[in-house]
Structures are given as structure tokens and as C-alpha cells.
UniProtKB/TrEMBL annotation, chain A:
Lineage: Bacteria, Pseudomonadati, Pseudomonadota, Alphaproteobacteria, Rhodobacterales
Membrane-spanning intervals of the chain: none
Domain named ABC transporter substrate-binding protein PnrA-like: residues: 29-317
Signal peptide: 1-23
Name of the protein in its database record: BMP family ABC transporter substrate-binding protein
GO cellular component, as recorded: plasma membrane
Compartments, record wording: Cell membrane
Native source organism of the sequence: Mesobaculum littorinae
Recorded superkingdom: Bacteria
TrEMBL record, chain B:
Cellular compartment(s): Cell membrane
InterPro entries associated with the record: ABC_transp_permease (IPR001851)
Keyword Ribonucleoprotein: no
Main location, first listed in the record: membrane
GO cellular component: plasma membrane
The protein's name in its UniProt record: ABC transporter permease
Gene Ontology MF terms in the entry: transmembrane transporter activity
UniProt entry tagged with the keyword Cell membrane: yes
Annotated TM spans: 12-33, 53-75, 110-128, 140-160, 202-219, 247-268, 327-346
Domain of life per record: Bacteria
Keywords: Cell membrane, Membrane, Transmembrane, Transmembrane helix
Membrane topology of this protein: Multi-pass membrane protein
Length: 329, 369
């Protein structure tokens, strides 16, 4: 028994000391996988850019299921990753419990707020970015109906939808906006087939521009839109390249920059809430060689004007999550 | 000798199956350009190389003990309970309701009530397919598997409506602190042993107790005898006056209750709130565990620990190497495939081998004439 005790003790000490030696940043990629062409992939891209530019190394792991969040987070912290970046609001309650156990480790949560002395919470002003693409959608629409396909039915996604609707109404007060959510559970982030069906139904209701804010499910929306010859709008990452000439633009949410900055700051990262909006280049819209023919000069000047207005506070875009309601929908 | 010796049945065949599965997994690892021996070493070290690894291995094993026993009990009556997944989900709901809505003064009382709640809800979920089988002849495999989907949908509905905690994620509020079960590190710290933090908790002991009780039930009680008799030959059992309806109902209720008990480990022990996929496929792994354990509680216990080690080792492999997540699922699936589904592939040649070997040896002649 004593021999066993000693052995187990020694093994535990070894495991602990092995973890403490190096302080690399860590990235926990959320459900849906790192190649979801959207939210997770944006974070992954940011991490890769940091590796290329600094030559540093980081630890990365992909979540396998909802129930393993805690194990994964603790594993990262115990292996000495610092800071540990976790993606997505679904980690909020787990991080609230895990963070106090590792006071010397810094955590960064994207899309969620955790009030702990060693956590930085990064929130994006998605409503502002969505407002811009809403304007572009309304200007591009010929039928006077635009639509929105969300991922999971949560306030965060309504924040996208509400910003989009406000932008569209700002251009054309009579515009019709059709809105659907793919599902009510995290599976909705990775159900391109159902999201594609919803798009088809929206086309049936007259929509000719569809905005997908649905993580991995958005791939199905963009595909259906291209098949049915209408325009689509991508989200989070720049998705213009996926169907050149069919993707009107993408609402970029610079998760990559957030991850890059977190890695760059390392252990020095400040706790608190960090809101990234239009003025911080946290959100925006994408123009590149794949969609420059679709974006007219008129659209561009209108959107640039709106961006200035939002940055200066002249235009106020309502944030759905502030009161769980949308004035225009 | 007309059949295999018992040791070959309970030890040799599972081991051969496991070796085959590992060889094929090794080939898969080679195909994706990784070193299979290193991968194996990481998995073994990750699963049993530290108190941390043991903690997680035994935590997962506890889940599989409950679901494995559930399948094993039903299998003794020739009932193939595929519904462990759904019964475990409903059991988790029962555990969560007990923990959320009753202010418990101490964890031991909460545990006793959670055992009752989990078992009751799990059994209730098994009762409907059992009734349909016993009275209507609807096949239990079909009904239990369909009930998995209903359970999952029901849980999702509750988690996004009445049970949802404030916030965006579909989950309940955290259970009160008083319902927190003692973890292995707390118990070991009390006797002066340093044990890394892991979700291993007292439910493991409940699992061991369940193993013993199932052994007692199946081999030491009248009901167990009736269950086995029914499983061996239904007409003979009926001729002997054993009620078919009673056996099917009682066996499935016990089976469902065992699956439901998984909730005390996963929900009350680790997550301390009800999540949408808290069962993690343990209901299905339970089938492989039960087949590999030959339906005997000791076998189920050993097989559960093996699968626990595979789960934990797989997680470590994903962490340590660039072996993708999907490949780990493939490796786990291969083990299930070889130990569960392809059992006869090994069993037939081995039993033939024993047959031939037994014949060649001179059989002792009976004395006298």
C-alpha cells in the first residue's frame, strides 16, 4: 500500500511539474470543429497567423461533446497553457466554475461574459456589422424581400437578425424580412441540410438575399442560394470565395484578431469585458475579388457613411441582447 | 470435450478480440502517418499512468458499469435493451429534478434520493417498451431505440423551456452546493493520499454495489432463476409456470433503473447541472460492455474499466498528437465492433480449435466395463 501511495504521489507530482514548465497559449475549439468555415475557423486562422508571425507554439484541442467542456478546459489549464482561449457562449457557466480554481491562469472567453478576476470576456458588436450587411442586402434586393437564417435560437443570434433588419429598414422602410432559426440546440450549428431547406422556403416567400448567421449550417444556406441563383451573405469569416459572384458579402466578425491579440498579450492580458465594434475593426463587411462586381459604388458610399455614423454615435443600432427585443421585427 | 473451457470463453476470446481491434486501429494510425506504438503508449499513459488518468478512466467506467449492467440484466431474459441511452437521459432528468427542487441538508441524503429518482425515471422510460413487448408483442429492439429519440427530444424541450437557466445555453441552473458528491481527491486527501482532481466520485462505489446486487439477483434469487430460465427457453419457462408478462416487465424495469442510475455519476457527480447530451453515448457503449463481459457483473466491471480507459486514453491522444478527433472515434468504434459485433468471428475458430485439440487428446476411459 505504501509503495503504491508513493508511486501514485510521484506520478501526480511528475504530471504537475511537467505542465508548469512551459507557458504557451491554449485554444479550445468549440463544437462544430475547426474547419466550420465560420466562427471556429476564424479563431483557428487567428491562431495560425500568430504562429506564422511569431514562430510561437500553442496548444489546441477540439471539443468532442457538450459534457466534456470542463475536462478540456481543466486539461488545458493543468498543462500550463496561458492564456486559455475558449470560444462560444456555451462555455460561460463552465468557465465560471473552472476559472477560480486556476487563479494563476488567464482565460479569455469569446461571445460570453464571465466576471472573474482572471478572465477577459470578449463581446463583438454583431448588431453593428449586421446593420451594414442589412443595408447592402436591401440595396441589392429586387423583390423587396430579404431573409435571415440563424443557427441556434439564442439571444446572440437574434442580435444578428435584429441588426440586419434595422439596416435593411434604414434603406427601404417597406422591405419584408423573413427570419428562421435552424434549431434550438447546439446541433443547429452543424446542420447544413436543414438550413438549406429553410433557405429554399424563404426563396418561396420571395426572398432574393439571404443572410446566414448559423456557424457550420451556413454552408448549406450559401450552397442553396447559389443553386437557386439568389444572393447570400456569409458570416464571421470572409465566405465570399465559397461561391464567387453569388455571395454578396460577408459580415466579418474578427474572431481571428481577438485570438491573435489574446495570444500576443499572453499572460499580461487584462481581465474585464472587452467590446469590439465597428470602430475597433471588430466587425465589418468584406469586399474582395469574388464580390467586387456585386458591390456598387452607391452601396459602398452608403455603408461607409453608416460606419462613420455608428462610430460617432450618430446612428444607434439597437442591441437585441440589451432588452431581449427588437424594435423592427 | 464438447465445448470450450470456461477460461477461454471469459478471458481468451475477449482478449483476442481486443488484440485484433488494436491491430486494426494500429493500421489505421499508420495509414494517417502516425506512429502506432507511440499512439498506444500515449493512450495507456493517459488512461492509467497517473491518478489524473485513473480518475477519469474510472469516472467513465462508472457510467459504463451502470449501462453495461442494464443491458446484461435484460439480456439474461433474451431481451435486447438498446434503450440504455434514453433511459439514462430520463434517469439524469430524475436526478436533476431531485437535486434542483429539494433543499437537501447533506449530500448523503441527496444521493439516496437521487438514486431513487434516477432509477424511477429510468425504469418508467423502460416500462412502456416493456409493456408493448409483453402485451402486444412489439419488438423491444425497435421500441427501445425509438424511445431514445423521444427521450432526447423531451430533454431538449425541457432544457429550452421550463428547466432552462438564465443565459443562452440550453442547460439547467447549477445544483445547490449541498448536493455535491465527494470526489476521489476529497476522499483520498482525508486519508493523506495526494490524488489529482478528477470527476471520480462516490458513484463509483454505488456502481460496485450495483454489480454485487445484480450478481445476487441473477444467481441467488428466485426471480433471477426465473429470468434466466425465461431467457434460456421461453416455452419451457412458461410450461414451468413462469409468467411471461411478469418477467418481461420486471426485467426491463430493473434494466431501465440501472441505466437511469448513470445520472448520479454524470449529472450529480460531474456536471452538477443537466445538459443536453450528458449520456455521451454510454447507453450504446453499455451494449459492447455487456457483450464483452459475458453478462456477468465481474465481466461488466472489467469491460467497463477497459472502455473507460479507451475513452480517457482517446481524449489524451487527441490532446497530445495531431491524430484528429474523428480518428479517435474510429479507434473506439473498432474496439466495439470487434468485441461486440464480430464476436463470432473469433469465437467459432477458437471453439473449433478447442474441439479438435480436445478430440486428439486421449479421452480417459471409464473404468470397468
Amino acid at each position: 500500500m505504501t509503495a503504491l501511495t508513493k508511486f501514485l504521489g510521484a506520478a501526480a507530482t511528475l504530471a504537475l511539474s511537467a505542465g508548469a514548465a512551459l507557458a504557451e497559449p491554449g485554444l479550445v475549439i468549440d463544437l462544430g470543429g475547426k474547419f466550420d468555415k465560420s466562427f471556429n475557423e476564424s479563431a483557428y486562422t487567428g491562431a495560425q497567423r500568430w504562429v506564422e508571425e511569431t514562430g510561437g507554439d500553442y496548444m489546441e484541442t477540439e471539443l468532442q461533446s457538450e459534457a466534456q467542456r470542463e475536462q478540456t478546459m481543466r486539461r488545458m489549464a493543468e498543462r500550463g497553457a496561458n492564456p486559455v482561449v475558449v470560444l462560444g457562449f456555451a462555455n460561460t457557466s463552465t468557465l465560471e466554475k473552472v476559472a477560480p480554481d486556476y487563479p494563476d491562469t488567464k482565460f479569455v472567453i469569446i461571445d460570453g461574459v464571465v466576471e472573474q478576476p482572471n478572465v477577459q470576456s470578449i463581446i463583438f458588436s454583431e448588431h453593428q456589422g449586421s446593420y451594414l450587411v442589412g443595408m447592402i442586402a436591401a440595396m441589392a434586393s429586387e423583390t423587396g424581400t430579404v431573409s435571415f437564417v440563424g443557427g441556434m435560437d439564442v439571444p446572440l443570434i437574434h442580435k444578428f437578425a435584429c441588426g440586419y433588419a434595422q439596416g435593411a429598414k434604414a434603406v427601404n422602410p417597406d422591405i419584408e424580412i423573413v427570419q428562421n432559426m435552424t434549431g434550438t440546440t447546439p446541433a443547429a450549428w452543424n446542420d447544413p441540410v436543414k438550413a438549406g431547406e429553410l433557405t429554399r422556403a424563404q426563396i418561396g416567400q420571395g426572398s432574393d438575399v439571404v443572410f446566414a448567421a448559423a456557424g457550420g449550417s451556413g454552408v448549406g444556406v450559401l450552397q442553396t442560394a447559389a443553386d437557386e441563383d439568389i444572393l447570400s451573405i456569409g458570416v464571421d469569416s470572409n465566405q465570399n470565395y465559397m461561391h464567387p459572384g453569388k455571395v454578396l458579402t460577408s459580415m466579418t466578425k474578427r474572431v481571428d484578431n481577438a485570438v491573435y491579440n489574446a495570444f500576443e498579450m499572453g499572460e499580461e492580458i487584462e481581465p474585464g469585458i472587452n467590446i469590439l465594434g465597428i470602430q475597433d475593426d471588430g466587425v465589418g463587411y468584406a469586399v474582395d475579388e469574388y464580390n467586387e462586381e456585386l458591390i456598387t459604388d452607391e452601396m459602398k458610399s452608403a455603408v461607409e457613411e453608416a460606419m462613420e455614423g455608428i462610430a460617432s454615435g450618430e446612428i444607434e443600432v439597437h442591441d437585441y441582447t440589451s432588452d431581449d427585443s427588437c424594435p423592427v421585427m | 470435450m464438447d465445448k470450450m473451457p470456461k477460461w477461454a470463453d471469459v478471458l481468451l476470446i475477449p482478449l483476442l478480440n481486443l488484440v485484433l481491434a488494436l491491430v486494426v486501429s494500429g493500421l489505421v494510425v499508420v495509414l494517417i502517418g502516425q506512429d502506432p506504438f507511440e499512439a498506444m503508449a500515449i493512450m495507456v499513459r493517459g488512461a492509467v499512468g497517473s491518478t489524473y488518468g485513473w480518475g477519469y478512466t474510472l469516472y467513465y467506467a462508472t457510467n459504463f458499469i451502470f449501462t453495461g449492467l442494464a443491458v446484461a440484466v435484460a439480456f439474461h431474459a433474451q431481451l435486447f435493451n438498446i434503450g440504455g441511452e434514453g433511459q439514462a437521459q430520463l434517469g439524469s432528468l430524475g436526478v436533476a429534478l431531485v437535486c434542483l427542487f429539494v433543499p437537501w441538508p447533506h449530500w448523503s441524503l441527496a444521493l439516496a434520493a437521487a438514486i431513487a429518482g434516477g432509477a424511477l425515471f429510468g425504469a418508467a422510460w423502460a416500462a412502456i417498451p416493456a409493456y408493448l413487448q409483453a402485451k402486444r408483442g412489439s419488438h423491444i429492439v425497435i421500441t427501445t431505440i425509438m424511445f431514445n429519440f423521444i427521450a432526447s427530444a423531451l430533454l431538449v424541450y425541457l432544457l429550452i423551456s421550463s428547466l432552462k437557466a438564465p443565459g443562452m445555453a440550453p442547460e439547467t441552473a447549477r445544483f445547490p452546493e449541498a448536493t455535491r458528491l465527494p470526489f476521489a481527491q476529497d476522499v483520498f486527501a482525508a486519508i493523506g493520499i495526494d490524488w489529482s482532481r478528477s470527476p471520480l466520485n462516490v458513484s463509483f462505489l454505488v456502481g460496485l454495489a450495483a454489480c454485487w446486487l445484480v450478481w445476487l439477483l441473477i444467481w441467488r434469487t428466485r426471480l433471477g432463476y426465473e429470468i434466466r430460465a425465461y431467457g434460456q427457453s421461453e416455452p419451457a419457462a412458461r410450461y414451468a409456470g413462469i409468467s411471461q408478462v411478469k418477467i418481461v416487465m420486471v426485467t426491463m424495469l430493473i434494466s431501465g433503473a440501472l441505466a437511469g442510475l448513470m445520472g448520479i455519476n454524470a449529472v450529480m457527480g460531474e456536471q452538477q447541472r443537466l445538459l443536453q447530451d450528458n449520456v455521451l453515448g454510454a447507453g450504446f457503449v453499455g451494449i459492447a460492455v455487456s457483450l464483452m463481459g459475458r453478462g456477468h457483473p465481474v465481466g461488466v466491471l472489467l469491460a467497463a474499466i477497459l472502455f473507460g480507459a479507451l475513452y480517457q486514453g482517446g481524449a489524451e491522444l487527441e490532446f497530445e498528437t495531431s491524430v484528429p478527433r474523428e480518428m479517435i472515434v474510429v479507434i473506439q468504434a473498432l474496439v466495439i465492433l470487434f468485441t461486440g459485433a464480430l464476436d463470432n468471428m473469433v469465437r467459432d475458430p477458437v471453439s473449433r480449435m478447442f474441439l479438435r485439440w480436445g478430440r486428439r487428446k486421449p479421452t480417459p476411459q471409464p473404468a470397468g466395463d
